[in-house]
Amino acid sequence: MRVKKEYFNSLKSTILNFRSKPLRTPSNLFVLNLALCDFSMVLVLPILIYDSIDHKYPGHLQCQIFALCGSISGIGAGATNAAIAYDRYSTIAKPFEGRMTYGKALILIICIWTYVLPWCLLPLTEKWNRFVPEGFLTSCSFDYLTPTEETKAFVGTMFVICYVIPMSFIIYFYSQIVCHVFNHEKALREQAKKMNVESLRSNQDANAQSAEVRIAKAAITICFLFVAAWTPYAVVAMIGAFGDQSLLTPITSMLPAVFAKTVACFDPYVYAISHPKYRLELSKRVPCLGINEKPPATSDTQSITTAA
Description:
Layout: H1 2-19, H2 28-54, H3 60-93, H4 102-125, E1 131-134, E2 139-142, H5 149-194, H6 203-242, H7 250-262, H8 267-272, H9 276-285
Antiparallel strand pairs: 1-2
Helix pairs in contact: 1-2, 2-3, 3-4, 3-5, 3-6, 5-6, 6-7
């Protein structure tokens, strides 16, 4: 039942992007890309569940498919989260010059997949590293245990390219967003104090700001999930390649792998379901969910009031 629910959530995010005109925006192309990355992992989760319950070793083809989908999901989600962080930063910190266009979004998505695919295809074709069973031998990933210089080179390079670089972009852009919001609010309060008013915002501006902050909070939560999910797995891989392999028991290597793979199940909840426009469209199209999202107010009534 859980797997079926995650299929539904991933498909729901994807279908809403295609069918709902308000959601067909350049920025939401990144959400669609993230949903596709997550869906690639959700597709093969039944393999992990079935093999774990049945204590069954996956065959070679099954192992390759599982590891390929896991690589696409993990590396693709990291790069896409970095792009989402950049888009949120541009929208909030540079609202007039930083708006995303369809052309710019498509170029960034092409760059994402150009960045991601080599690290998925190199182990698949065994040109550099390979996909092997891991943990309890019920799932598969790239080889980080074979004690060779080639394995160390691959794991070290992948750690930097697929983990450190996306993480650095994510941390930088969201720290800039936080700084911008604090500085902007501080400037507004100081100006309002000089003008002897309580607020300089109109109702429409306040609603727009609230929506942007909600979207940023959702994106930050997803990026936190990405960090929390993939950091233990990255540590396990680095220990396997460069550290004391006796520390890696089947359970200590399997638990981070399972958690990293199941994070794909939570992205639709955190981002799409908490996104104001997604919630509004879900309220219209699937009223039985009981979301009851209200449309944003369009009134331009000013909220500037004289301070007593």
